[in-house]
Amino acid sequence: AATSFYEEVLRADPKNVAALIGLGSAKMRAGKYADAEIALKKCLTYDADNETALFNMGINYFSQQKFKESMTYFERGLEKQPKNSRGHHYLGIIATRMGLLDRAEREFKAVLAIDPTYGDAHFNLAVLYISWDPPKWDQARTHYADALKKGVKPDAGLEKILSGATVSAR
After folding, report:
1. CA Rg, the chain, in Å?
2. Helix axis angle, 17-29 relative to 51-63, nearest 10°?
3. Which of 97, 90, 101, 91 is nearest to 133 (CA)?
4. How far are the Cα atoms of 7, 10, 51, 100 from residue 38, in angstroms, in the given order?
5. Best label site of 54, 63, 147, 166, fewest CB within 10 Å?
6. pTM for the whole thing?
7. What is the DSSP letter of 149?
8. Residue 120 CB-half CA count within 13 A
9. What is the DSSP-derived secondary structure letter of residue 156?
10. At CA 31, angle to CA 10 and CA 75, rounded to 5?
11. How many other C-beta atoms are found inside a 10 Å radius of the C-beta of residue 44?
12. Distance between CA 125 and CA 103 in Å, rounded?
């Protein structure tokens, strides 16, 4: 229904940036990533600095695991809106998946500097710190505890790893 609405708006006004973003979002939700990309790129031809369109392009590529492309759009969006904690969070996840651990740490810390209540950033820092060589166990435990305080649900796998580190550290 949303797709039809946005397409109708665009028939009347093909350069309607809001409708192009809406259409792109609706196409993403439907798993039609190529169609979403077309709508969002069209939007960016009319408004190259549109932070919402840039962010959505980042999500579109992230959903397809095209991490380099996704990173490019999130970075462009953050140039326009540097305090977008979600954009930094996505960049932290992407950097982690690309093995750029220092970059991931910077991005997750940027999230917390903007929004100290962002529990998923604490969680992802905990995961990041246990993956380092050598692992940073104390920092991982601290961030996991902070994640739980911020409402993140307990993770049995992470708790097992962290408790095993306590036993082996003795």
Report:
1. 19
2. 20
3. 101
4. 13, 13, 17, 30
5. 166
6. 0.89
7. H
8. 9
9. H
10. 80
11. 21
12. 12
User: Tokens 């665009």, residue?
Assistant: 10
Nearest to 124 by CA among 106, 37, 11: 106
Residue with tokens 């604490």: 122
Answer for the pair 131, 139: CB distance below 8 angstroms, yes or no: no
Report the pLDDT averaged over residues 133-156.
Answer: 96
**71 token code pair:** 């990173």
Residue where the block lists tokens 């408004």: 47
Model confidence at 165, in pLDDT bands (50, 70, 90)?
low
Query: How many CB atoms are located within 10 Å of the residue 56 CB?
Result: 25
Structure tokens, 2: 């949303």
The tokens for 56 are 């959505």
DSSP state of 98: T
* Short-list 124, 77, 70, CA closest to 101: 124
Phi, psi angles (nearest 5°) of residue 19: -70, -40
| Token pair for 152 | 């993140």
Query: Tokens standing for 85?
Result: 């904690």
- The first and second tokens of residue 17, run together, are 């940036």
pLDDT of 105: 98
Six-digit token string for 109: 């810390």
